[in-house]
Amino acid sequence: MAVELSTNQRWALPLIISGYLVLAILYTLSTPPLEASDEYKHYPVVQYVQTQGKYPVLEPDKPGLWLQEGAQAPLYYFIMAGLTAWIDSGDLEEIHQINPHAFVEPQSNNE
Length: 111
Description:
The protein has about 110 residues and is mainly α. It has a domain at about 40-95. The chain is about 45% helix and about 0% strand. It has 4 helices and no strands. The protein is elongated and about 65 Å long. The mean pLDDT is about 80.
């Protein structure tokens, strides 16, 4: 049994998806590189996979630029390494700085 949709109903989903895509693109373009949430920890894992061809080994005395993100599932990082291989990230250690105004520290230690 086929359901007939009105003209308004037919355009609702494409309109919602288009609105979402516009907002997502605007957000992406307005956020400086390495400042979105924990991107400054994720991208070093991607760069390591690009340059070394393997996933980083976590060492407590040498956490690397990725900190705890090196413990995440590796599939995302291998996919991103392939998609961003054209980006020159040789100076990542020099430009890898945390914006002190981008994050709000917790006010208590929750003990």
